[in-house]
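Dataset card, provenance and construction

Sequences and ligand SMILES were collected as paired inputs. For each pair, a complete structure of the chain with the small molecule in place was predicted and serialized as structure tokens. The example below shows a pair involving zinc ion. Curators did not alter the output after generation; any descriptive sentences attached to a record were derived from the structure itself.
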Amino acid sequence: MTNTTSPIVSWLLSDNHWFNAEPRAVHLLPIPSWLQGVAKPYAAASHDPKAPLAVEFLTAELWMIFAPVVFYWIYSTWLYILSHLKLTMFEVHRIQTDQPARKPNKVTVQKVLFTVFLQHVVQSITALVLVVLTRPDNVVEWRMESPLVAIGKFFIATVLLDTYQYWMHRWMHVNRALYKRFHSVHHELTVPFAYGALYNHPVEGFLMDTVGGAIPSLILNMHPWTSAIFYSISTLKTVDDHCGYAWAWSPARLFNSNGAEYHDIHHWGKGVMYNFSQPYYTFWDHIMGTEYESAMERLRIKREAELGTTADKKEDNEDAGRAVRGDKSVKATESNTIKRVGSSGKAALRQRKVDHSSDDGGDSATTSTSRASPVRSSQRLSEKAKSK
Ligand SMILES: [Zn+2]
Ligand SMILES: [Zn+2]
């Protein structure tokens, strides 16, 4: 019987094509010579022929710890340069075109840079400690996952990270004390920019980003190379979400609307109680009704319904007013009019109750019974929805 399995599928399913039966170092990324020098005492502590694998493992660990930091500063600096060059080919992708109308950032660029630097120090030390604590006794036995396993773990990790960050983020908005003490620091950026992606209170930076990143890696027992890729992409995505440009080519747009435009809405004013999801997907906002666009659509429908009942009521009141003034033509229908006023009032009340019960916690501000125009109501409610 002939084997019909595609060689590519066999390769993907293979768990040891990167590490052969005869161990040898296979580098995902080149190991610089200076690093080999650093690793030598560690790798060659014994005359184990598998020592090159240990070098490889150490390299992966170092990439896992430092690659996100390096990529953060490289990508932020590139975006910073772009924002100053103002080249037309990039400026067409700029969002925040309402910038003059927004309140300016309450923090200086210098303070942002220093705070992010501190965040990276804490993050790197935490990662180093975790590496030491969780490193297997015999690193040579911890082989690199097959690409299929690595890709699977990567996607599960993105869902775990999003879930953790959605609820942490939402909690930090709903709990006024937490918002005031910690999360309001991030919302000093009303006009976000790339360097500010990790501008947080140190406690929030540790809880939200450092712990949030470590959880999927620990739960899924990810190989350092898989973690390095996961952390690097997550970091680049977070920087991109704050950069003020919505790139047409952004991979985020292939999957859903969670990109710079999406998160930028969350930074309006002192923080809008919508669009908590970050950094990858929008499904939690969608499930919990905290997606800005859909919340605004619900609000619009409600306003239209209210406006309809209000118009009915106004018309009926005018009829009633004419009747009171002694208008004979109306007098004949006076009793009917009064009944109609009563019924439309009840209908409006019912509508409000239905709307109220369909609203969730993050959207409670939309239960106002204002009778102003939908646009003005929407604006006012949007203002109310902003955190204080
Ligand atoms: Zn943000
Ligand atoms: Zn927030």
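Derived descriptions for this record:
Residues 169, 173, 183, 187, 266, 271 surround zinc ion (ligand 2) (CB under 6 Å).
The two ends are 71 Å apart (CA to CA).
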